[in-house]
Amino acid sequence: MEHYYALILGGGGGTRLWPLSRQEKPKQMLRLIDNTTMFQAAVRRLQPLFPVERIFVSTGHQYVAQMRADAPELPRENFIVEPSGRDSGPAVALALAHIHQRDPQATVAILTSDHFIRKEDTFRDVLEAAYHIAQEGKIVTLGIKPDTPATEFGYIERGAKLGTVAGFNYHVAARFTEKPDKVRASHFVASGRYSWNSGMFIWTTARALGEFERQQPAWYALLQTLQAAIDTPNYEAVLNEIWLQFPKKSLDYAIMEGARDMVVIPTDIGWNDIGSWAALFDVLDKDGLGNVARGQSADDWIALDTHDTFVMSEKRIVTIGVEDLIVVETKDVLMICRKERSQDIKEVVNYLRENNQDDYL
Question: Nearest-CA neighbor of 9 among 140, 113, 124, 107?
């Protein structure tokens, strides 16, 4: 698989783990699970399937210095830097143009920088299987086996089984549904025909650029201009001149929902997108009462009659007679919420943005 490349998307400035995650230090740069950042974990688990020279990173200019420091083993030229955030569609398009220019026979796995994957061996195995399926001209996505009717994920309906590679079945991806309500999500899970959309895709660059040409012809014209400039001294000027002509649009909406020959591999890789404090709580080791502590509070937390609670602070914390709480303290914010309400943090972030309190974002 000498033409197989990994592309890690690391440009998101997400705030779903606010107040710890901020615009200048988003989730992928945080040490949430262990002593490595989420980005470092994403790079580590790809090896040895991908040698470092075939691991690329798409990120914003404000993050590239720290990400290069986190992964100094990656070649400098493998960081594809966006002049400004335009969502995942243009970010992937730009990176694919670079990789295809380097290797027209390339197959690329588009992967995440801020998700947790417990079964790393299985993850690498399914990526290897996906490579072989992609050689048939398919666009492959990894579908995660749902264990709850979650409403924060997209869903993929599995159609007819097409075959098996290395023990992994793959099916027609019959339909994508973006973030259904609770009733529909419950029906999806009960039917046994749906997977969560992991946001990870495997395709050849030729196949990918063909989809951009078919579905987003204006984008494709811009990509051709960029490709012609990649190895010239004028590349940065050309990129800056045309970058804002790309609309802000996710890869799912720009390409995947209308793509042809999409297939899904249903798999269980111990995946969690760490999309909320409750999701982080789910993957961390707990004490005998179901509690989790991070930061200095791991040594200085006095927990009396406290159950199923998460605490992160650099101060001594005392909790008495509480359960199912998230308590996070940073240098400028103390946030306390019920665990089941942690998705509502986005409302706080929206409030701060609407009221021009950007110092807290």
Answer: 113
| Residue (of 299, 297, 332) closest to 312 by Cα position | 297
Tens digit of each residue's pLDDT (9 = 90 or more) over 96-144: 999 999 999 999 999 999 999 999 999 999 999 999 999 999 999 999 9
Structural domain count, the chain: 2
Q: Chain centroid to CA 186: how far?
A: 24
Tokens at residue 282, please?
């789910």
pLDDT digits (tens, 9 = 90+) for 174-201: 988 888 999 999 999 999 999 999 999 9
User: Could you give the C-alpha distances from 2 to 45, 50, 151, 319, in angstroms and in order?
Assistant: 18, 9, 39, 55
As given in the structure block, the two tokens for residue 61 are: 């200019």
Q: Is residue 178 part of a domain?
A: yes
Give backbone dihedrals phi and psi of 114, rounded to 5 degrees, phi first: -135, 25
8 A C-beta contact, residue 78 and residue 57: yes
Let me know if residue 71 belongs to a domain: yes
User: What is the average per-residue pLDDT within 215-232?
Assistant: 95
Distance, CA of 147 to CA of 352 (rounded, Å): 33
According to DSSP, residue 296 is labeled: T
- What is the residue type of 213? E
| SS3 (DSSP) at 45 | coil
Please indicate, yes or no, if residue 278 is contained in any of the structural domains: no
Q: For residues 33 and 268, what is the distance between their CA atoms, to the nearest angstrom?
A: 19
Q: Is 270 left (phi over 0), alpha (psi -120 to 50) or beta?
A: left
Separation between Cα atoms, residue 278 and residue 329, nearest integer Å: 16
Residue tagged 């419950």 (tokens) = 186
Give the residue among 27, 33, 31, 23 at the shortest CA–CA distance from 10: 27
**What letter represents residue 250's amino acid?**
S
* 98 residue type, one letter: H
pLDDT one-digit tens code per residue, 302-325: 999 999 999 999 888 999 999 999
User: Domain of 326?
Assistant: 283-360
Rg of the Cα atoms in the chain: 21
